[in-house]
Structures are given as structure tokens and as C-alpha cells.
Amino acid sequence: xxxxxxxxxxxxxxxxxxxxxxxxxxxxxxxxxxxxxxxxxxxxxxxxxxxxxxxxxxxxxxxxxxxxxxxxxxxxxxxxxxxxxxxxxxxxxxxxxxxxxxxxxxxxxxxxxxxxxxxxxxxxxxxxxxxxxxxxxxxxxxxxxxxxxxxxxxxxxxxxxxxxxxxxxxxxxxxxxxxxxxxxxxxxxxxxxxxxxxxxxxxxxxxxxxxxxxxxxxxxxxxxxxxxxxxxxxxxxxxxxxxxxxxxxxxxxxxxxxxxxxxxxxxxxxxxxxxxxxxxxxxxxxxxxxxxxxxxxxxxxxxxxxxxxxxxxxxxxxxxxxxxxxxxxxxxxxxxxxxxxxxxxxxxxxxxxxxxxxxxxxxxxxxxxxxxxxxxxxxxxxxxxxxxxxxxxxxxxxxxxxxxxxxxxxxxxxxxxxxxxxxxxxxxxxxxxxx
Length: 435
Hints:
Elements: H1 2-8, H2 11-31, H3 44-54, H4 76-88, H5 93-109, H6 111-122, H7 124-136, H8 138-146, H9 151-167, H10 174-190, H11 198-212, H12 216-241, H13 252-258, H14 278-287, H15 289-306, H16 308-324, H17 330-334, H18 339-365, H19 371-379, H20 382-386, H21 398-427
Helix pairs in contact: 2-5, 2-7, 2-8, 3-4, 4-5, 5-8, 5-9, 6-7, 6-9, 6-21, 7-21, 9-10, 9-11, 10-12, 13-15, 14-15, 18-21
């Protein structure tokens, strides 16, 4: 019994189980796929850019044909995939297995910062419960295998940087604060969406340090400088290559237009993407990446200004899809009577509701400490409400949702236990005055 208890309380055991579960799904995934479609199992634009890098043509050509330099995605994951292509062959089955195995590794290792963060904020029980929740969370098992994309690495990097936000104020050495800035810079170079949460987290860390010592400005400046140095090569490259028209990513105009045009039914018109529309693909190659994106952004902005009611409806459906994985209402999906859909619906709604409950309890018990969590949940998805979304876009913040959900469950169980104990004590015979 003691051995079982020790196992469930071990961070290494949680990570090992998380990796094992994901590897089992990885085996099942490839067992169900014909070998000849290995190329099409590697994520579209990212795979195309990685293939270009591996072939010696640089960071370019996101649409499977030579089109010149690109900034369609952030650089770290495509370069990682390019390294896999160089070692195991471009678009080979071996490369597909290896890159998915790396995604599995990133997802499994995310258990550690989740446990540390939960333990730091809410105690050991919540830390362990957070790790086990992440280990068995269905989307955390399937997405790293199903998609060759940056979201698993982004989730690990974001959760680690968020944990540092809560502990960095205790450190007074320059190296620690420099590492803090680097951690956020690395996370941004994995996923530009991380930029939305950095100001709030950085200000929180500075506020906490200011409460401890007067060196907060010096240490904060070091962190900011480290962050700037980390991301500057990518920004400088884009400014030079695209003549000052691109900062982080070049594809915002397209993504905005795909979710805001007259053909959108409720969330986005995926069939208008250049990879799915011959006309759009032709326009992309004819105009070039920057001009094409500028045209799409102008068209999207015009539509948003002239159709505010439609845009509001799209954003409502995207909000639903972000937090429930479905753009339709609970009642509409439940009415289909499909058991698998109902189970998935209950899981997704349950995770969101538990996250909200955990956040509310955290805000009541530790209002200041809960601010970075609120910052992540509020600001990270905003760009997806505006453009378009799919369930995997939210995945980098799913570790935070797992932790808050676990905290809600732990608090609920504690309240039930205390209520039962209090009721049992009240039922005990009360001593009389003579006694």
C-alpha cells in the first residue's frame, strides 16, 4: 500500500505514465494508417518550410512549391522538423514517427512544470492532481500525435515560463532573471500567440520583486534585454527580407480573411485557404506573400467594418469552439444522440467549467497570485476569436486549464470531507451542564 501511495505521489511516475499513454496512442495511430500516406501526415505549411530548409533553400516556400522567403510560422519548430528531415529523410515514414515521438516527449515533460506550478500555488495535492489530469487528458494524448505542429512544444515552453513567473521574485542574481527573459523569448519563437500573455506575467514578476527588494528595475531590465536579444534575430531577418513589412509572422491577413468574409458560415471558410483553393493558390504565387497577405487583410477589415453583426456572430461561434471544441450549442450537439459526441461534449464542457470554478476559487483565496492565470486565460485566445480557431489552437494553455480543473476538484473534495466531518461531530452526544 505504501508503495502504491509513493507511486501516485511521484512526479517521475506521473511523467512516465503520461509518456507511456501517449506512446501507446502513437503506435495505434500509425497502425491504423497506410504507409504510403506518410507525407500527408506532416503538417502542411510547417512541413513545407521544413522541407525547404532541409533542401538548403532556407526558411521559405510554405505551400509545397518554391515561392521565396516566408514568415508564415515562427522558426523553432520548422527548424526542428528540418533537422528530423535531414536525419531521417524528407516526408518519410521514419521522419513522421520521430517528429511525433518528439511531440509526445514535449507533452509528457509538460507534467513537470504543471506539477511545480500547481504545488507552488495551491499545495502538493493540487500539484499531483494537476499532473495526473494532464497525463490522462484526452486532447493532451491525441493532439501531439495527430498534428505535426508546434502546440505541444509551445505548451511546455509557456507552462515553464509561467512557473518561472511565480518563483523568479525570490532570486536576486542576474543569471536567473536573464534566464527568465530567455524562457519567454524561446516560447515566442515557438508560438507568436504567447506574446499576448507576456506583458501581464512580466509586470506581475516585477511587482512581486518590488515588494521584496529595490533591485527590481535592474533585474527586470536584464530580463527584458534577454527577451529582446532572444527574439531579435528573427525580427531583424524579417525586417530585412520583407522590407519592414513583417515583424513576427506574415500570414495574419490571410487568417483574418478566412474568418471574416461573406462565405464564412459560422467560424471560418477553410476551403478558401490556398492549400484548398486553386484560385487562392494561384493568387498567392502571382502576387507574392506580402502583397497577397496585405490584400487579404484589407478585404477582411472592410468586411468587418461593413458587417458588424455577422462578425459578432462569427466571434460568438469561435468563442464556443475555443472553450468547448464545438461551434454549435450544447443542445444542438446533444440532440444528435451520438454517444461519442456526447462523451466528448461532456468532457470539454466539464474541463471549461472546472477551470472557471478553479479560477474563481483562486481569485477568492489568493487574488493577486491568480492574476497571471487570469491573464493567460483571457488574453491568449483573443487573436483566435478575431481570426478563426480550432481546438488545437488553444492547446498551449491546456496545461493551465488542467491545473485549475484539478484545483477545483481538490477544493470540492476537501469541502465535502470537511462537511462530512463536521456533520459527524454534530451528531456526537453533547455533554450536559452537570457533566
